[in-house]
Structure formats: C-alpha cells, structure tokens
Design a protein that fits this description.
Distance between the termini: 68 Å
Helix content: 40-55%
Strand content: 15-25%
Number of domains: 1
Number of strands: 11
Order of helices and strands: HHEEEHHHHHEEEEHHHEEEE
Structural class: alpha+beta
Oligomer: single chain
Shape: globular
Radius of gyration: 29 Å
Number of helices: 10
Length: 337
C-alpha cells in the first residue's frame, strides 16, 4: 500500500470516528432534551393534580353543607349522581370514589364521618380484646398492650399489672416521658410500649415480640382520636363493626346488607338506615345496644381527595370539625400516590 493510500485510509477512519462521536453526542443531547421535557411535563401535571386535589377538598365541603338541606327529589340544576351522593351524606352514609371530571383531569372524593371508626380513647377492655383478636394478635399479648395503653393515658403514675409507666426500662431507654393523658393522634400510639408498626399497620411481629412467623393485619385503620364513643351504623366497615364486643359476624353481615335500603340496591338515594332501630332490627341486635351507635354524625368528617392529570396522581387527607354549618380544619396531610 502506497503512502497516499495509507493517508486516505487514515482520513476515512478519522472521519468515521468523528461521525460516530457526533452522532453519539447528538443522540445523547436529544435524549437529554426529551428526558428533561418529560420531567418538566410530569412536574407540570403533578402541580395540576395537586391543585385538583385541593379543589376536591373544597368541593367536598360544599357537598356536606348542601347535604344538610337537600330535599327528597333532585331539582333541575342538580345532576343525579350528585343528588344521590348528598342524600347519602345526609344519612351519614360514607361516599367513596365519587368522581368529578374536569378539563384538566379528574378528582376522586371519599367522604366519611370519623364515627365510622373507633375512638381509641373510648375503647373498653373487651373492645380492645376483640380488636386485637380480629387483627391476629396472639392472646398472650392482649393484656400487656391494654395495660400499657391505660398507663399511657390515665392521669396517675401507678403502674398496672403488665403495664408500663415512666420508670419502665422501655421508656427509660428511649428517654421518653409517659404522657398520662388521652392520645391526640394515631402516630402517638407508636410511642406506647408494645405498639409496634406491625400492631398498628400490619406485618410480622418480628420487632419487639421476636415472632417473625406471626403476621397481623394492623388496627390503625379502624381507629380515630376524634368524636365520641359511638359507631356510625351507616358507614362503619365490617372490621370496625366486628370490633364491638359481643356482636357476631352474621349480625354484622346483616347490618351491611340492610344498608342497601328499601330497593335492595347500593348506590341509590335510599341507601342507609333512617333511624338506629332499623339497623338494630336488621342485625337482630337488642335495643340495649342502641347507645353504641349513631347515624348522620358528621361532627367530625374525613375527606380524601385525589387529583389526577395525565396519569399523575396527588392526594390529600383532611379531617374537619363540622359544627352548625361551620367547618374547621383540624388535620391535613398531602400524599404521594
């Protein structure tokens, strides 16, 4: 090969390498632009979804205010689905998955009275026993959990049998003072000796109890710190109703079935019981249990609002106090979905 040919070959190779490098840089640049564009779009959609979620909170409060005075028939300006939702709210029936379509995306609302959960500060010992048993907590741990809760929430510093006050090594190791007052948030339950994440939210009892093979369902989803000791007969879940000591599963199933109203169909404007005696009769419960229940009790209400835009979802959970038409925010958190 002549010197001329070798130079031409080297120049061609250099040109090819240069073309490959430029192409790689160009592809990388285009990819980066697209990635940044996608990230910007996700950020924009996420912001819009968050605004929809916040708007859903306001719309839900409006629904609650309107529900207090809604009549027996929908007027010409009220869409049928909205009328049904407000009629059910009027009776204390929880609204779950109510969808509002907008130009930007959609809002999904769930509205429920806090009385559809058990107020943790009002639970009797038998109620605690029932709830812990239903969640799968072994009987051997019931007494110590209940005693630890009582010692945390009572006014004195006397230690119950199997309980724990401030001199207990568990609290001393954590340098954690015992409150000796009612629980103010469900998060606070996690400070009490024995109330592990698994006990509260479900999972293995490996931590603290050293029982990795035992799994429990968790109790936090059944509890609240707001409202009185009554349970909403129209909106409490099966699990919450089953936590009432002395009530049988078949009675709970009959109560849940009876919520469909006279037409026997869920999602219509006659859902729920109009008075407590109806619900007691449906479940075959005695009149002596009437004091355990309430109906249209929206003194404390939980609103979950999820905004969605182009597949991006943002959620918010708020608890409000509802008093004579005045709605006051008492708890709020935003959630990534």
């Amino acid at each position: 090969m002549t010197t001329r040919n070798r130079k031409q070959g080297s120049a061609l190779m250099l040109a090819l390498v240069t073309i490959v490098m430029i192409s790689t840089l160009l592809i990388s640049f285009i990819f980066r632009i697209r990635m940044e564009s996608d990230l910007a779009a996700r950020e924009r959609f996420g912001l819009k979804a968050r605004h929809l979620s916040l708007g859903g909170q306001e719309y839900a409060k409006w629904m609650l205010l309107q529900a207090a005075s809604v009549g027996n028939e929908a007027d010409d300006d009220t869409e049928e689905g909205l009328f049904v939702a407000m009629k059910n709210l009027q009776r204390g029936v929880a609204i779950r998955g109510y969808v509002i379509e907008t130009e930007e995306g959609s809002i999904q609302l769930s509205i429920s009275p806090e009385s559809s959960r058990r107020n943790v500060n009002t639970l009797s010992d038998p109620d605690w026993e029932q709830m812990l048993e239903n969640s799968g907590v072994p009987d051997d741990y019931h007494a110590q959990l209940i005693a630890a809760f009582r010692d945390w929430t009572d006014e004195d510093e006397a230690t119950r049998l199997l309980g724990a006050e401030e001199d207990d090594s568990y609290y001393q190791d954590l340098e954690l003072p015992v409150k000796n007052d009612p629980v103010e948030s469900l998060t606070e339950l996690g400070m009490i000796r024995g109330f592990t994440k698994a006990i509260l939210y479900g999972g293995s009892l490996e931590d603290y109890y050293d029982e990795p093979e035992i799994f429990v369902s968790g109790i936090a989803g059944l509890l609240t710190v707001y409202g009185d000791a009554t349970v909403n007969l129209n909106s409490a879940s099966k699990e919450v109703l089953m936590s009432l000591s002395g009530i049988r599963e078949e009675q709970v199933d009959q109560i849940l079935e009876g919520r469909s109203g006279a037409d026997g169909e869920f999602g219509t404007d006659d859902d729920g019981y109009s008075d407590i005696t109806q619900g007691l009769a449906a479940g075959g419960l005695s009149s002596e249990t009437q004091e355990l229940f309430s109906l249209s009790n929206f003194n404390w209400v939980r609103i979950v609002s999820i905004g969605e835009v182009a597949g991006i979802r943002k959620g918010s959970l708020a608890i409000y106090e509802f008093d004579n038409g005045e709605i006051t925010l008492v708890s709020y958190e935003e959630r990534e979905l």
